[in-house]
Design a protein that fits this description.
Layout (H helix, E strand, L loop, with lengths): L2 H4 L29 H26 L6 H5 L2 H4 L11 H29 L4 H22 L14 H26 L7
Helix pairs in contact: 2-5, 2-7, 5-6, 6-7
Keywords: Membrane, Transmembrane, Transmembrane helix
Organism: Sinorhizobium kostiense
Protein name: Transmembrane protein
Length: 191
């Protein structure tokens, strides 16, 4: 038998409840794991759901199909008539929703990075930054990008409903950010 197999391990300087870990990436606490990207996925998802609900509500109030605004978003692939489709289908509705959802996450990225930069958890600060982000999103979506890359809602909804949808985007971003922070830091919840 070899010496390793015969000799017991000499007295260790570690107690039985200590762990030895190999060198590698530093482990972080669950509270510090969230990055602006992870937070953006959360707040962007909530913003996407809130704005999709708002679009359906405004479409119904304007006597349109609840699916038309989401279908209209697929116009980048299916052309300007996409907003005329009144039923839910994979070709228009699924593509339109996926496009909108990714767009909401896209706008949540600078919003979450901005929030992370000053770490304020005050709801008024979060809401103000969400409103400014939504305003920039509107300006880019309807005044800077080519028509083919707009949300397409103008083919279905009034300007007022579009404006209200961007307000819903701001509320969704703010709600998502506050919920995300509440989940990350449950002891810091406002009373």
């Amino acid at each position: 038998m070899s010496a390793i197999a015969r000799d017991p391990v000499p007295d260790s300087t570690f107690s039985s409840n200590q762990r030895i870990s190999a060198p590698g990436p530093e482990r972080r606490s669950p509270q510090s794991r969230s990055s602006p990207f992870t937070s953006a996925v959360a707040s962007g998802t909530i913003a996407s759901l809130v704005t999709t609900a708002a679009l359906a509500l405004f479409a119904g109030l304007e006597r349109r199909s609840v699916f038309q605004p989401t279908n209209a978003t697929s116009h980048w692939l299916h052309g300007e008539n996409a907003g005329r489709i009144r039923i839910a289908d994979a070709k228009h509705t699924l593509l339109g929703y996926c496009t909108h959802h990714l767009s909401a996450i896209f706008w949540a990225l600078p919003f979450e990075a901005w929030l992370a930069a000053d770490r304020s958890r005050e709801p008024t600060v979060v809401l103000r930054k969400a409103a400014l982000t939504a305003a920039v999103a509107y300006l880019v979506d309807y005044h800077l990008v080519p028509k083919r890359l707009t949300p397409g809602w103008e083919t279905v909804l009034s300007k007022r409903s579009i404006g209200m949808t961007y307000a819903a985007l701001a509320l969704g971003l703010a709600a998502g950010a506050m919920l995300s922070r509440k989940a990350q830091h449950p002891s810091h919840v406002a009373k």
